[in-house]
Amino acid sequence: MQDDAFQEDTVSVSERVAAEALIVDVGAFEGPLDLLLTLSRTQKVDLRQISILALAEQYLAFVEQAKRLRLELAADYLVMAAWLAFLKSRLLLPPDPTEEGPSGEELAAHLAFQLERLQAMREAAAKLMARDQLGRDFFARGITEDVQRVRRVTYTATLLDLMQGYARIRTRDDFRPFVMDRQHVMTMEQALERMRGLIGFAGDWTDIASYLPDGWDADPQRRRSTTAATFAASLELAKEGKIEIRQGEMFAPIQIRKKVPDE
Amino acid sequence: MSNDAKPKNDSLFEAPPMGEQERMVEAILFATADPVTVTELTGRMPHGCDPAEALAHLRKRYEGRGVNIVKIGDAWAIRTAGDLGFLMQKETVETRKLSRAAIETLAIVAYHQPVTRAEIEEIRGVSVSRGTVDQLIELEWIRFGRRRMTPGRPVTFVVTQGFLDHFGLENARDLPGLKELRSAGLLDSRPQPGAGALGEAEDDEDDNQTELFED
Amino acid sequence: MSNDAKPKNDSLFEAPPMGEQERMVEAILFATADPVTVTELTGRMPHGCDPAEALAHLRKRYEGRGVNIVKIGDAWAIRTAGDLGFLMQKETVETRKLSRAAIETLAIVAYHQPVTRAEIEEIRGVSVSRGTVDQLIELEWIRFGRRRMTPGRPVTFVVTQGFLDHFGLENARDLPGLKELRSAGLLDSRPQPGAGALGEAEDDEDDNQTELFED
Q: Contact C125/A33, CB-based, under 8 Å?
């Protein structure tokens, strides 16, 4: 594939000129592969027919030139130069059967493939960018209508809710059980409060039934509640030493009187 | 890529054929962010075009289609056909518990139908807001019944078939009476939220919340 | 706003006639600038509709018109006809000029997808800057694909629906010259002879960078 008869000197003379032209804008290259691709164009042949050996020499001449001009080349250009020098030696020397690794031809073929592929990708990119483009050559809808998110709220209720609601209205009084109950229940605290006010007047033994509040004796439930509360309050007052309690016999009326201090 | 087969319309002297002009108007109306006036169309189309005529053709072409050519002020635009507006909406349904006022009002209508607003208010002991009644009507759970033949001829409310369906009742007379409510334990204890008979209702609410979370 | 004269299409059993379905697809596609998938159409149209068939009808209807129904990946959109771009100077969106590196990287992703960063770098012979990839991702022309099941599990890049839409491609197989490139073997991944270990190390690096991107 490589032309072994190619004279190094003839290449370097003609290509050095090209290299000098290129060297001015070394910064414009996107890396060594790009530079190689550009150099390959000077061979004026199809990339498939390119002489990698000649290309390697062009590249090395370019790097040589850059050194002479004291241009600082990025490290990867120098790495490529070293690799191409190695490739060149492999291509020029007869293959050493004891040496391991790929042959010079294989390496050269891969480099040719890389160049061809890069070139192909560049052409593809150009074709892509030459296509009609959205917002430049063809257009999307100018007036868009967003999909409105409508939140629909549905209401629900169960039969139980309904019945309870109705019960709540119809039995508004019944329906506050604690309030209702309190109307028929006297707590010990209430009885105590009441008796503390009254006990000061109870010098004589008095049936505790007479301490029951008015209107609490008609309804049996109320009577029971208030009796119990009043009795409990009496015990509490006795414990405090405020009153004395006595009961003549079982089921006889319970009587209380104010305890006279220090009697 | 530009279709080279299409006639180039850059001649200063010959206007493109009307079919082409129609295409142009179509493309411009489609892509422009605002409605376009005939003057603007004239300015943007090749020399010698008659956008007004092209518009008339285009308008006819879009008659009965999913989008129509409509005039907005003195400008033109392509808009979704009125009857397809529903496609531009994405509905999400959220289920909420009916408010206490609404439940009570509904219950009164159910137990006392036909009932006037004044009667509902008397039973509830508070005035009934317009919104509550509207909501129940919208839910199609109550509807207007006959007018009461009393002074002022007030309108009455009755429950609907939808109501019966929702609550699984054959008719409103199947609703349990107070005694039954009491024996079912519904009247005994409603101490505070979170106890007794409320339990079931709460489970329900819980359910709804779960659904909300899952969405 | 719903036109009551039109049949209500909320029956679970009867789909609207195909003509109506076509109108609906038309309205939905006209309403948005973004491509709409058949799945989305199905979701927005009444039960029982066949948007794919409606689309086929609609596509035919708009052939040769000022706007066309185009397929982009697995989605559909309406776009102005390519030959009418000259009318739309006003609508032209000024886009930031892409660098040569970005254009080449984009082409490599499109033609070689899914492709790793290391592979892009091998093809271009130069490292790919973070900014280049970021810019293409920001344009929503490329996105991360699946990780490659090789050591280091490097992330891959693929082109997006937005890329196809922008360049008027129905799918990535329609890329210009793709067949020729493939048959010429230029899309094969051909490792550098005798350079195994290097490749792996590169993949590793790629992986780390990817994770940076994803965070």
A: yes
